[in-house]
Design a protein that fits this description.
The protein is an alpha/beta fold. The protein is built from six helices and seven strands, in the order E-H-E-H-E-H-E-H-E-H-E-E-H. The protein has one domain: Formyl transferase, N-terminal domain (Rossmann fold), CATH 3.40.50.170. The protein has a seven-stranded mixed beta sheet with strand order 3-2-1-4-5-6-7, with helices on both faces. About 40% of the residues are buried. Bound molecules: 5-O-phosphono-beta-D-ribofuranosylamine.
């Protein structure tokens, strides 16, 4: 049974899909979420963790010294004995010490078809607004190995969705989010199978 540390910054719907798949789905008896950490004390993802009886820790990024934040994040992940780190709507850079120690064991979900519409500032609704503005005919979601940059790192799974002419950014966001919830657990399973 592999241990997952999941990092969130917001609603945690991707975290929820991972939790659900560990309980009754494709990750049952394969993985368990052992800790959820957020940079945002009011992230609903922390509440989702508590409801699932998973250790939930808020590190108040805004009111902490950067080095202290990074050290606490590192220690929490080490103590959790996590095999994989899953960035599920997590919006901060990963401390280099963690990137180095968990090379090819950090997975990130991005709501676009990387390498398009990725990089600094490309997160959440900004991504979908850029896709609509560019009159793209398709978008989608990508799970990739995270490294010290935003949204680079080799791709694990990618899945497309259509973008229609009349779509608003919100329409695209909703269609992509469904795919995110589908491919993140699949990507975790694929990485675990390759670990063994
Ligand atoms: C999702 O679109 C995810 O791709 C992005 O953050 C958004 C919110 O995710 N990284 P969640 O509901 O907090 O999992």
């Amino acid at each position: 049974m592999k241990k997952l540390a999941v990092l969130v910054s917001g609603g945690g719907s991707n975290l929820q899909s991972i939790i659900d798949e560990t309980k009754n789905g494709i990750l049952k008896d394969i993985a368990e979420v052992v800790i959820v950490i957020s940079n945002n004390p009011s992230a609903y993802g922390l509440t989702r963790a508590e409801k699932a009886n998973i250790k939930a820790v808020a590190l108040d990024y805004k009111n902490m010294d950067g080095k202290d934040y990074d050290a606490k994040m590192y220690n929490l992940i080490k103590e959790s004995e996590a095999d994989l780190i899953c960035l599920a709507g997590y919006l901060k850079k990963i401390p280099e010490k963690i990137v180095n120690e968990y090379k090819s064991r950090i997975l990130n979900i991005h709501p676009a078809l990387l390498p398009k519409f990725g990089g600094k500032g490309m997160y959440g609704h900004f991504v979908h607004e850029a896709v609509v503005k560019a009159k793209e005919k398709k978008s989608g979601a990508t799970v990739h190995f995270a490294d010290e940059n935003y949204d680079t790192g080799s791709i694990i799974i990618q899945k497309e969705v259509p973008v229609y002419e009349k779509d608003s950014a919100d329409d695209v966001a909703k269609r992509v989010l469904v795919v995110e919830h589908e491919i993140f657990p699949k990507a975790i399973k694929k990485v675990i199978e390759n670990l063994e």
